[in-house]
Design a protein that fits this description.
With 299 residues, this protein is an alpha/beta fold. The chain is 32% helix and 24% strand. Helix 6 packs across helix 8. The structure holds guanosine-5'-triphosphate and magnesium ion.
Length: 299
């Protein structure tokens, strides 16, 4: 008899939600960066072990509406908490429990079990220091379980999986066994590129970036080696940002391209040739048509 559970991952920006998703799935499907608001829309990751399929939904970490894109990101969170079997509330052990967690807990229906995940415990040399922090977070709500972990060091993941299997209910598997995301390859490729820009750029520039893959195809070299050709456009909000993204004599673009190509090759397991272009789409984060075009609409 097959079983499955839908599990939504919630938490404030930078708590490590996408890191946890990647660690649980064992594949890097979600962009991760030290900048808040890395994730912009719902990302599904699937883990099938024996009879049980766990379907995870990673969400953006955001609470305030400052532009139209943010409104869509909040809608992504709101729509991710209905008709699910459990929630993982991910918190950062280095931060204090606060209003952001309370606001997220208010979105969850009373009948949905919530598991508190205290992440980044690797940052504590003395684990006893964690006790009051965990206690403070645990007092925020009525949690089914409280699990300290390190998504970075893949520590505590089995305890999460054992807990989550309890929420699996008899029913079909929604994804074929072996499939680990519903994201199209083009989206994965564009997110890999955006992740590098988020890490390399500072201030407002990285937050105003969208990446679109224009083409993706394979060809064989004369020596019969298969090569993946990807052409992608980086959209930014201002002409001045374009200059920053390209960098002196193209140095920034080159650096981002090299880092992205390495990850693309790792993910697609094929030699990759990446071409990057930069275009300005003024104030796109406030233009519905462009938000939709970039696949970030949640209407
Ligand atoms: N030391 C440490 N750092 C971590 C851990 N998990 C995540 N991080 C780091 O925390 C930062 C944010 O990680 P993300 O996974 O992007 O966080 P997120 O919650 O998905 O963030 P948003 O998508 O912006 O809401 C990155 O720099 C990660 O490398 C952990 O267990 N330990
Ligand atoms: Mg994220």
């Amino acid at each position: 008899m097959t079983k499955s559970a839908f599990i939504t991952i919630l938490g404030r920006p930078n708590a490590g939600k996408s890191s946890l998703l990647n660690a649980l799935i064992g594949e890097k499907i979600a962009a991760v960066s030290s900048k808040p608001q890395t994730t912009r829309t719902k990302i599904t990751g699937v883990l099938t072990e024996g009879d049980t399929q766990l379907v995870f939904i990673d969400t953006p970490g955001i609470l305030r509406e400052k532009d139209k894109l943010a409104t869509h990101m909040i809608k992504a969170i709101d729509s991710s908490v209905s008709s699910i079997d459990a929630v993982l509330l991910v918190v950062d052990a280095e931060k204090r429990a606060g209003e952001q967690e309370k606001a997220l807990l208010r979105k969850i229906s009373k009948n949905t079990p919530v598991v508190l995940i205290v992440n980044k415990v690797d940052l504590f040399a003395n684990k006893e220091d964690l006790i009051p922090i965990i206690a403070e977070y645990a007092s925020l709500g009525d949690f089914d379980a409280v699990i300290p972990i390190s998504a970075l060091e893949k520590d505590g993941l089995n305890i999460i999986l054992e807990q989550l299997k309890k929420y699996a209910v008899a029913g079909p598997h929604y994804f074929p066994d072996g499939k680990f995301t519903d994201q199209p390859e083009r989206v994965i490729a564009s997110e890999i590129i955006r992740e590098k820009l988020l890490e390399l750029l500072t201030d407002e520039v990285p937050h105003g970036i969208a990446v679109g893959v224009d083409s993706m195809s394979e060809h064989d070299t004369k020596d019969g080696e298969a090569v993946l050709d990807i052409s992608a456009t980086i959209y930014c909000e201002k002409e001045s940002h374009k200059g920053i993204i390209i960098g002196k004599k193209g140095s920034m673009l080159k650096q981002a391209g090299t880092l992205a190509r390495k990850d693309l090759e790792k993910f697609f397991m094929i030699k990759t040739n990446l071409q990057l272009w930069v275009k300005v789409k003024e104030d796109w984060r406030n233009r519905e048509a462009l938000i939709k075009n970039f696949g970030l609409s949640n209407d």
